[in-house]
Design goal:
Number of domains: 2
CATH class of the largest domain: Alpha Beta
Shape: elongated
Number of helices: 6
CATH topology of the largest domain: Nucleotidyltransferase, domain 5
Oligomer: single chain
Distance between the termini: 78 Å
Strand content: 15-25%
Length: 178
Amino acid sequence: MIAVGVDVSKHKSTVAVISSDGEIRMKPTDFHHDQPTLNQLVSTLLSFHDDVKIVMEATGHYHKPILKIFLESNLFVSVVNPYIIKKYSENDIRKGKTDKKDAMRIAWYVLEKHYSIVPYNITDQKYDDLKYLSRQYGQCVSMRVKARVQLYNLLDNIMPGIQTIINSRTADPDDRFT
């Protein structure tokens, strides 16, 4: 088995590869999120001719381009909660946080937990889309509330007492236009 740890950042991912006997097959290497570079990464992983298991942390939407290319290449890939990796790495004596160290930690995690790693399910995309839309809706509602509060504060500064007139005029919908 080949354990692949992917530490995802905004424009690049750091990838480390370890074989089942603990040999480092590829030191942590940066791959930018563009098509030719990701194709090169997939070719490298497929060249190992072994059972490749890839794990990456869920990073909002930053992991999506690399996840998509792994799924299109029919590679086993799992997206895990960053908290799980954090808890796993708390056992490490050497502290420090760099992309290269994180990629190695994730690869060691794959090696140790390979029996319990669940593959990414494409139906999860629907839930990701719903979560995204829900967050966007929440942000729109929040912006609307904030704008309304700012408007009322501005009205109070410019025309003190106008709020009572507005509230009394809008309390009964039938009286709005009289």
